[in-house]
Each structure stands twice: as structure tokens, then as C-alpha cells.
Amino acid sequence: MNSNNDPNYSPLRDVAQSPEATARYLADVQRVLLDIGKNLETLAHETRVHLRDTHVEGDRWYHARLRAMPVEKALGNVLKNLNNLTEGLEKSAYKRRAHDEVVVNTAKERKEKELERQRKKNPPTLQAAPNPPQQGAQSQNLDYGGPTSIYDMGRESA
User: Which runs of consecutive H residues, i.e. helices, occur in the chain?
Assistant: First the structure.
């Protein structure tokens, strides 16, 4: 399928339908963003050095630093947002794979629940256990005639 045949064709549609393709695509985007992040870190450092070295006549030693702080803060926020974005891309790839696993497991769980419902509706019939034969002395007074522990089992007939 290509753009000539279908006006609604989107190349990302195929990527979205496969968790492996989604993970590859997000990893590529993350790699590009990390490269951009390295460049932005270098830019932030060089900007900081330049702005803090820019003094005007009559400045005290801290005036250049105070003027540079808003620019440094803005670049720092950009870097922080970029790091959050790359973490979000990685998290999205994991969530996408987890979604497919949940979809596969849901069908199995539904079949198991249906079987359990069928078992509850039609419980298997159990046969009653036969009563043990009654012995004269033990049937009258069960508290004193039987074995008191598993070690006394061998002496039961004596």
C-alpha cells in the first residue's frame, strides 16, 4: 500500500501496528534527541562562560552572573524537558509491548473464566465416602480408646 493508492495512507500506521516497529522507531527518535541534547549541553556551557565573562563598566563582580542566570535557567529547562522526553519515549515503548501482552493474555483469561463458570454451573457429582466399620469399644468412647499420637498407631490393636 502506498500514497498513490490510498489518500489516507500514513507510514506511521504500519509502525503503530507492531510493538517491535514502534520500539525501533522510538529508539531512533530517542537517539536523535540524545544527539541534540549533547549539542544543547555544549551550547549551554559555552553560553554560560560567555555571559559570565561579559562585564560592563561599573559592574561589581556578581552583576554579570546575575544577568546570565535567566538565560542559563532557560537552557537548563530545555535540557530537563529533553531528558524527560527521552525517558517518556523509552517508557512508551515498554507500555506498547505490555499492551500487546495484555491483549494476548485477555483472550486466554476469558476462556479460563468461561470454563470456571461452566464448572460452577455443572459441578461434578461426588460420591459419599463409606462409613468406617464400627468397633464395639471404640465406638462407645472415642476420647479414651484411640491412639493419642502418630507414634501410637502401631499399638492401636493391642
Answer: 11-16, 19-53, 63-121, 136-140, 142-145
